[in-house]
Design a protein that fits this description.
The complex is a heterotrimer of chains A (318), B (359) and C (259). With 318 residues, chain A is mainly alpha-helical. Chain A is built from ten helices and no strands. The longest helix of chain A has 46 residues. The N terminus of chain A is likely disordered. With 359 residues, chain B is mostly helical. Chain B folds into two domains: 87 residues, no CATH class; 233 residues, MetI-like fold. In chain B, 71% of the residues lie in helices and 0% in strands. Chain B contains 13 helices and no strands. In chain B, helix 5 runs parallel beside helix 8, helix 7 crosses helix 8 and helix 10 packs antiparallel against helix 13. The longest helix of chain B has 35 residues. By secondary structure, chain C is α/β, with parallel strands linked by helices. Chain C has one domain: 3-Layer(aba) Sandwich (Rossmann fold). Chain C has ten helices and ten strands. Chain C has a six-stranded mixed β-sheet with strand order 6-7-8-3-9-10, sandwiched between helices. In chain C, strands 2-1-4-5 form a four-stranded antiparallel β-sheet, with helices on one face. Classes of the chains: A mainly alpha (318), B mainly alpha (359), C alpha/beta (259). Chains A and B meet through helix 1, helix 2, helix 3, helix 4 and helix 5 of A and helix 3, helix 5, helix 6, helix 7 and helix 8 of B. Chain B: Keywords: Cell membrane, Membrane, Phosphate transport, Transmembrane, Transmembrane helix, Transport. Chain B: It is a multi-pass membrane protein. Chain B: Part of the binding-protein-dependent transport system for phosphate; probably responsible for the translocation of the substrate across the membrane. Chain B: This is Phosphate transport system permease protein PstA. Chain B: It is found in: Cell membrane.
């Protein structure tokens, strides 16, 4: 489209080429390259600043780590809570996401599937604070009867010991909210790999007399296995780093507890803890919080890295 | 089956072709679902069962009944197929509940509070009634706009470097990897980064809107890079070569030929990225903070934003907690609407301005 | 016993688009029937409608009758899954399941139907099927290796072994040699000759020499005109088709004057 102006003055263009063309090229390439370098710098910056600020907290004791003996005694319960909430979220979200992805890729009629895919994308776009708001004001309250039932009938399992708070703000609620938030990500990746399953293998299975489900098990799942694992890992990465939903649902706490349906004896997560305490923190406490942020960064980095590595390996193989 | 020659004629099963294996009628799933719903409704009306329990009863009836019926008539393979079908559709229905409930809650609770006054007033000097979110809307717009201003040039130029200049080079691979890492940075960590950076220049306890923009940029740049990269890769090499063949230098080729071809996709990607960061809370909580009045200067003092406003309206409502909750829902509806409008706009841009092939 | 297929007045649609119109023919049992014709004339579409693989594509449907063994394939009471079990299919490009070994590939269809097979039974079936596909001697020492490791021609014969392991009545082949080199092609053609004694074989081919070599009867498909649906122009014994066809268009096509 821009070509129409070029042939008009060939000679001019070449003349310009030799003067400004080379300079322009150098300048433009330099700009592009330095933008790339800036990204490197930014990420290095994130790491360096977190390490510098956070490492100051390594020797913190007592008040600076909110009354714990050492920084590790402070980080551990939060780390535990972070992992617990995220794992709950994945246990709930992964099977649902695979189901939804199958609906979109194989079960629903084409036009319906397109709309559904779009709806799921919208679900991914809703801000996390709104999920938190919904979690605390709607979901938590409506889950109370279910928690009561769990406590009465499964209270002998440590997970469901209770007591159930009237607010419904528990670890399990946080996990469910995180599951809802991670679901669109996992669904999006899964449906993509499901849809990429070669048609010829699916037809081969059908031509052998496979039912739809048998066809999916014979061709789609084996093909998509690494994609599904990487989808769940990337979803886990999102859940680990998610702040607001948990910060709204759970009260600050430094406990290590498997009790999923109680408020007082519940664990909390790193991200939520930072959000809830940062406003009132000062001095050494800020370093402590930044250190927990560093820990969170390393873990999400590891999980995301693993997820991508598996995805890439899957692509190279298949 | 033990003889090694292929003599299908000998096999009794092959003399006739059992094509007509008994089948459930087409309306079977519908009928089964109808019966399940009917029994669940009866359970509510006659047995006094709660709604949730009734749904569970209905679902179990369907999930067990339909496959059992199918197993009796069609055999175990078809039954397994039906079980899978019921499970997959149930997973879908279950996943849709939060979406519907969330949209419904936000709209029904947020709509009553919306008024012209709600958008014109701030919370300065307001206790209880009469407040608004003018300051938060302005803050969100200013901070997001600044973040876009930082992210778009850096993101687009980096993508140009990756696709046009650095293809295959070591630096390009490192940058690609780092962009991947950046997409996974937890938003709160981005906030901590901005805080740690700004403390160096402005001392501890710093709060300013621009810090929020920097934090959001850390989240936004990788999205912009990714989207732009994808779009640039779609531009056919023939176009570039045609331009080189006319003696146009590389940088002008990129600016005049490659970018215009990819612009629709890039704008879509940027719009989606804006939608994504406009709703971010955690980094703004740390570096931008909250005020009650409008602050138009992003380089000094705290600046209110919609997400942070919602957060504090819920966590620290003070004594007027009912009013604050109402404001929070109003702000949430505003925020969701903003994000949705951006999303729809992105899609419209993507489809309307997509490169026209043939005319 | 291998079955014959009676097709009467078959129209095949993709959505509203009529792809193939008014086909009637009788495909004899235990013989090889070949379909030839230019690209896009609907011969593959027609082939896929013979075991209801056509309807896998969204919006695709047929009108008319396909009778196999006295049963109409498109009766509402007929189960497409059962149809495909009885009427196997081999595709244009070899498509062994990439995650399965050679052994598991052969058994993949059979496993769907029988609950639990004894090891000796499955071993026998694998050997029988691979022998039937002329592949046994080449792969008997590496049955546990992935099927994707074989050459293209071997993969295609593996797919044939997989199809006959289900013990179908009819074998449909959709240009089975188009992705293969001449030596592999000739191996497959030999195999088709041998399979003919047990199965009704229908093969779509682009290659007229191939049709002349392997088939007993040949159908020539062509478009009525550009943009019009495909139709069956002539259906005759292969010998007559290639020496003295009834139809002028057939002669033109066979002698290479178009297509």
């Amino acid at each position: 489209m821009a070509m129409t102006t070029e042939p008009r003055s060939d000679r001019d263009v070449t003349a310009i080429d030799q003067s400004t063309g080379r300079v322009g090229d150098v300048v433009f390439a330099g700009l592009a390259r330095s933008s790339g370098l800036l990204i490197m710098l930014a990420l290095a910056g994130v790491a360096v600043f977190l390490v510098v600020q956070g490492s100051g907290a390594l020797g913190n004791t007592g008040d600076a780590v909110y009354g714990k003996d050492s920084i590790w005694g402070y980080v551990w319960p939060l780390l535990f809570g972070t992992l617990l909430a995220s794992v709950i979220a994945m246990i709930i979200a992964a099977p649902l996401a695979i189901g939804v992805a199958l609906i979109i890729s194989h079960y629903a009629p084409r036009p319906v599937a397109k709309t559904l895919g779009w709806l799921i994308d919208l679900l991914a776009a809703i801000p996390s604070v709104v999920y938190g708001l919904w979690g605390i004001n709607f979901l938590a309250l409506n889950l109370v009867p279910a928690y009561d039932w769990l406590q009465r009938n499964a209270g002998w399992i440590p997970f469901f010991e209770g007591p159930v708070p009237n607010s419904g703000r528990t670890m399990l609620t946080a996990g469910i909210v995180l599951a809802v938030m991670a679901l669109p990500i996992i669904t999006a990746i899964c449906r993509e790999v499901f849809a990429q399953t070669p048609k010829m293998h699916q037809e081969a299975a059908l031509a052998l007399g496979a039912t739809r489900w048998e066809m999916i098990r014979m061709t789609v799942f084996p093909y998509a296995r690494s994609g599904m694992i990487s989808a769940v890992l990337l979803g886990l990465g999102r859940a680990l780093g998610e702040t607001m939903a948990v910060a709204l649902v759970l009260a600050p706490s430094l406990l290590v507890s498997f009790n999923l349906i109680t408020a007082e004896q519940s664990s909390s997560t790193i991200a939520a803890n930072i959000a809830l305490n940062f406003g009132n923190a000062s001095g050494a406490k800020i370093d402590t919080l930044i250190f927990t942020g560093l820990v969170l960064f390393i873990i999400t980095f590891a999980v995301n890295f693993l997820g991508r590595a598996i995805a890439v390996r899957g692509v190279a193989k298949g | 089956m033990t003889d090694t020659t292929l003599t299908p004629v000998d096999e009794t099963g092959r003399h006739s072709m059992p094509l007509q294996g008994a089948q459930l009628p087409r309306y079977a799933p519908g009928l089964a679902a109808g019966i399940a719903v009917g029994i669940a409704v009866l359970a509510v009306l006659l047995g006094g069962v709660g709604a949730v329990a009734a749904v569970m009863i209905g679902w179990v009836l369907l999930a067990v009944g339909l496959p059992a019926w199918s197993r009796a008539v069609e055999g175990p393979r078809k039954a397994a197929d039906r079980v899978a079908g019921v499970l997959v559709w149930s997973a879908f229905a279950l996943a849709m509940i939060p979406l519907v409930s969330l949209v419904w809650t936000v709209v029904s609770k947020g709509l009553p509070i919306l008024s012209a006054q709600f958008f014109q007033n701030s919370m300065r000097g307001i206790l209880g009634e009469g407040g608004g979110i003018y300051h938060a809307v302005m803050g969100t717009l200013i901070i997001t706009a600044l973040a876009t201003l930082i992210s778009v040039p850096i993101g687009v130029l980096s993508a140009i470097y990756l696709v046009e200049y650095g293809k295959g080079s070591k630096l390009a691979r490192v940058i690609t990897f780092l962009v991947d890492v950046m997409t996974g940075i937890p938003s709160i960590v981005a906030g901590l980064f901005a805080y740690a950076l700004f403390v160096i220049f402005f001392g501890p306890g710093v709060r300013m809107g621009f810090g929020g923009s920097v934090a959001l940029s850390v989240l936004m740049i990788p999205i912009v890079v990714r989207a732009t990269e994808e779009m640039l890769k779609l531009v056919p090499d023939e176009l570039r070569e045609a331009s080189y063949a006319l003696g146009v230098p590389k940088w002008r080729t990129i600016v005049k030929v490659v970018l215009p071809t990819a612009v629709a996709g890039i704008v879509t990607g940027v719009t989606l990225a804006v939608a994504r960061v406009a709703g971010e809370t955690a980094p703004l909580l740390i570096i931008a903070g909250l005020t009650t009045g409008a602050n138009f200067n992003p380089f000094s003092e705290r600046m209110a934003t919609l997400p942070v406003f919602i957060f504090y309206a819920i966590t620290e409502p003070g004594i007027y907690d009912e009013e604050m909750a109402a404001y929070a829902w109003g702000a949430a509806l505003t925020l969701v609407t903003l994000v949705m409008v951006l999303n729809v706009a992105a899609r419209v841009i993507g489809s309307v301005f997509a490169p026209k092939t043939g005319r | 016993m291998a079955k014959s297929i009676d097709v009467s007045d078959l129209n095949i649609y993709y959505g509203d688009f009529l792809a193939v119109e008014g086909v009637s023919m009788t495909i004899k049992a235990r013989s090889v029937t070949a379909f030839i014709g230019p690209s896009g004339c609907g011969k593959s579409t027609f082939l896929r409608s013979l075991n209801r693989m056509h309807e896998v594509i969204p919006g695709a449907r047929v009108e008319g009758k396909v009778m196999v063994d006295g049963q109409s394939l498109y009766e509402p009471s007929v189960d497409p899954v059962a149809v495909r079990r009885q009427i196997g299919m081999v595709f244009q490009r070899p498509n062994p399941f990439p995650t399965m070994s050679i052994y598991d590939n052969v058994l993949s269809g059979k496993k769907l139907n029988s609950k639990r097979m004894k090891k000796s039974e499955s071993d026998d079936l694998v050997e029988k099927s691979l022998r039937g596909a002329n592949l046994w001697t080449e792969v008997k020492d590496r049955l546990g290796k992935p099927g994707m490791g074989l050459s293209g021609g071997q993969q295609q014969r593996l797919c044939i072994a997989r199809a006959i392991a289900v013990e179908p009545q009819v074998l449909l082949m959709d240009e089975p040699c188009s992705a293969l080199d001449p030596i592999s092609t000739s191996a497959i053609e030999d195999l088709i000759h041998e399979l003919k004694s047990d199965y009704t074989i229908v093969i779509v081919t682009h290659n007229m020499q191939q049709a002349a070599r392997v088939s007993d009867e040949t159908g020539f498909f062509n478009l009525k005109a550009t943009g019009e649906p495909g139709q069956l122009v002539e259906f005759n014994s292969t010998k007559q088709m290639f020496t003295n066809p009834d139809n002028e268009a057939t002669e033109a096509y066979i002698s290479g004057r178009f297509g």
